[in-house]
Amino acid sequence: MRSVRLPFIPARARFEQDAAFWVLLQQVVVRGFVAVKFLAIGRILGPEAIGAVSIALLAVAIAESLSDTGLAQAVVQHREAPTQGELGAVWSTLAMRGVLIGILIAALAPLMTSQFHMSGSIGLIFLAAILPILRGIASPAYFVVTRQRGFQKLAGVECSASFTDCAVGLICALSGAGAYSVLIGLVAGETLKTVLTWTRMSPRPPIGFRFKGISHYVNFSRWIWAGSVVNLLLNQFDKVVVAKLLGPMQLGAYQMSSKLAQMLLADAAIAMSQYLFPTFSEHHRRDTQAARKMFRRWMTVAVVGLTVVVIVLRLIAEPLFSIVLGSAWLSAVQLFKIFVINMAIGALIAVLVSWLRAVGMPKVATHASIIQAVVLCVTVPIATHMWGVTGIAWAMTVGLGSAASWMLFCIVREA
Questions:
Q1: Radius of gyration of the chain (CA)
Q2: Does the pLDDT at position 194 exceed 90?
Q3: 1 within a domain of the structure (yes/no)
Q4: What is the largest CA-CA distance in the chain?
Q5: Is 282 exposed, middle or buried (0-12, 13-18, 19+ CB in 10 A)?
Q6: Which of 3, 38, 63, 304: CA 20 to 30 A from 179?
Q7: Is 311 helix (H, G, I), strand (E, B) or coil?
Q8: Which pTM was predicted?
Q9: Can you count the helices (H) and strands (E) in the chain?
């Protein structure tokens, strides 16, 4: 008898270093630790503390988006592997970027505490300023391993860092560290990850400040930077509005409902994009038609699976919040029902972006982000005036749907 199997899964289970199994394992373990940490600490501390931490992390996200070099994606996508000199230039650029971001965040900490109703929480922002520095000094060998599809090694590093983040954060929370426990755990996890990129990955770049020899990455990476700047508005604009107008308490409810929906839906697709981007890139270099067939199969699976999950999560939303987070968070249930739709669309976008970058069309993703930004600029003021924070969430849905539709249109047109 002939064996029956899905066309994109081998008949024999594969566990080599480039197998999708390691990406799935990484997703389950990493997101599991993140879920345990945030849900446990959220139950212990309540919405206001989570909101204060979210504002501190918001500063990091804004600064990193504004200064995204796109070098990581360029190293993965470029036809030729980087030389030692090129890796050294990449490290120098990213290290300097991380240090400058950290200094900027620390310098703006007093202003942020006054603008976002964070009296007495300036230490959270100072602690968050360490994160971009740690990420910047990590070895760019991580990008080379990604290019080589060394998913087993990547999973080991990511899982170790996530376990450290979760364990340290929970210990600090139970010891009475309050909101600081979230950031202390993040710093511990990023420190371990940076160390592992230097000790467990190769080739190691030469240490020394050099910035020449990577101009050929610029044409690709500039679109990544442009996309990051636009995505800054798309991903952080709503949080800034909620934090500025309503303060940490409301931001905590908004952020937790968004985070829970993200963990249950979008994170799986984002993690799979770590596998899909280099995999699509490799198949596209070898056989364009075969790569297109693979993309269509992945999109079909994603659409069907996400539809089922969204329906189930909306049905069990209230008991889920009551059991996991407690009665203090029940006000976030309605937001959660909207965010599961948002995150499902975001999951599809993650697959679309992986394909667009793999085939050398990152500008389409950037154009889609611009369309989404325009839609938000039109809909958010009206929706906020009429429905408040719920209106902001629905406006995000309309924007995400517009971006995904544009990407699909361009992909079909180029087929």
A1: 21
A2: yes
A3: no
A4: 71
A5: middle
A6: 63
A7: helix
A8: 0.69
A9: 17, 0
